[in-house]
């Protein structure tokens, strides 16, 4: 039993590390990607298609990987995702045109898109319902830490050449594969009587099923709001406040840092005292206030406050929604997490396009749109009868 518990802990810690590694690999190329695009003489529209192309490729492919994880196991899909993630970054070293860069991005997105739902499904399988929300929050913290460290590492690597971040990201991902193979326990559960196997097209139907569609819709809305922030905040800071690159980087770091702090320090306390519905609703309101601060900002400090609020709010809402989805027991965890990741990818694909259009009309447009969206999601979530009975499974009762 002790050996089993030890292996389980190693699996969890390695999953946290892989999540950290994947987000570090994603973030480490952010400082270098614009320079690579400039070296290929790409337009701003072509640069935007590289971001949207990655997100849309994930949207169409991630449900397939989630379904496959339920059939062959989460661990094999995770290993394929790690390999695809690493190979995609190494192939960027050979990109010499827009078409080759776009093709590499799309192929990389398709191959690596199974990594997130497989890792999340493994975590939900390795935890009972009582501790699942906290474990998902820790996954979010690992992701946030990776996003914090990635751009910093990319900046430190810049003296070694424009392509050095791509090489490091690819190498680290490939080096993680043997450790994942040895230490990660699949945690594959037998299909329960309530679950039934579905094919790829059937899995899409669950996006519109009761007890799923509301949660997937909120996931989509949050992704649109978040991607509006990430795609347009830098432009707002430069044009409204003449911010330096350091100040722009600080804004993103503050947002990620606030989310990590909540997920590591405060989330478990909230789990023990509030229902899932209250926790997620609270997070949506906090995010709405953050977007309003940025939209109506008159000083750089107000933008920083808005970023902190958005980080806090997302740290409460996102893991709670994933936990609620994981508790639905109609189809396998891999399929559910795949659909969740698909909605997230769709939002990250649509969000920047919509935000760019609104920003061309008014600099505050994307952030006020995100504010209205969070308010609408709050009322939709708060007054939906589908969520009235959902409670945190880690809640403890004391006399």
Could you explain how this protein is built, in words?
- The chain has helices spanning 2-28, 33-39, 44-72, 74-91, 98-112, 115-126, 132-157, 164-183, 200-205, 213-241, 245-271, 276-295, 300-327, 333-361, 365-383.
- The protein has a single domain, classed as Up-down Bundle (Growth Hormone, Chain: A).
- The chain is mostly helical and 399 residues long.
- The two termini are 32 Å apart.
- Helix 1 packs across helix 7 (132-157).
- Helices cover 78% and strands 0% of the residues.
- Residues 190-196 and 388-399 have low confidence and may be disordered.
- One of its GO terms (cellular component) is plasma membrane.
- It is found in: Cell membrane.
- Its main location: membrane.
Strand content: under 5%
Number of strands: 0
Number of domains: 1
Question: What composes the largest sheet?
Answer: none
Calculate the terminal CA-CA distance, rounded to whole Å. Answer: 32 Å
CATH architecture: Up-down Bundle
Please compute the radius of gyration using only Cα atoms: 20 Å
**Element order, helices and strands?**
HHHHHHHHHHHHHHH
CATH superfamily: MFS general substrate transporter like domains
Indicate the CATH class.
Answer: Mainly Alpha
The CATH topology label is: Growth Hormone, Chain: A
* Count of alpha and pi helical runs: 15
Q: Roughly how much helix do the residues carry, as a percent range?
A: over 70%
